[in-house]
Amino acid sequence: MTITNDSKTTLYERDFYQWIQETTEKLKMKDFDNMDLENLIEEIESLGKSDKKEIRSRLTILLEHLLKRVYVDMPQEFNGWERTIRNQRTGIELAMIDSPSLKTMWDGAFDIAFRLALREVKKEYAKQGYQIPDTWQFERDIDTMLNIDFWEQ
After folding, report:
1. Where are the alpha helices (DSSP H) in the chain?
2. Sign, CA torsion 63/69/70/73
3. Which is nearest to 117 in space by CA: 45, 68, 48?
4. Which of 6, 19, 64, 133 is found 20 to 30 A from 37 (Cα to Cα)?
5. What residues does each domain of the chain span?
6. Higher pLDDT, 68 or 3
């Protein structure tokens, strides 16, 4: 593999890690005039998008496994589904601790995640005769979703 150091490309494009190091140093020195603000802004925005994407992804996996655990009678799978439920709940809780403002996107994220989870679970288990409701039958607030074992109700 040939690596060229094209003078027309920016440091951001050539060596992202070095760009981070230099940008961090410029921030510490308050050298705002010589910063690559355009790429810095883009990176900061992507961090927020990444956090939101993580919540939606974890919530989708959580809902898939909750749906399976509640509606699919396959006792040999219960332990694995419950382990995944615990792992996803922990991940969501940690993300919410780090960024409490993510709680404001919960309802929208829930709607998207449920639609995706329902599609996957129905695709996998409806053919086997399992009836999965088209709507979430339980409370959907954050605390409930992170703490209640719906299959025990």
Report:
1. 11-14, 16-28, 37-71, 75-98, 106-125, 142-147
2. positive
3. 68
4. 6
5. 12-152
6. 68
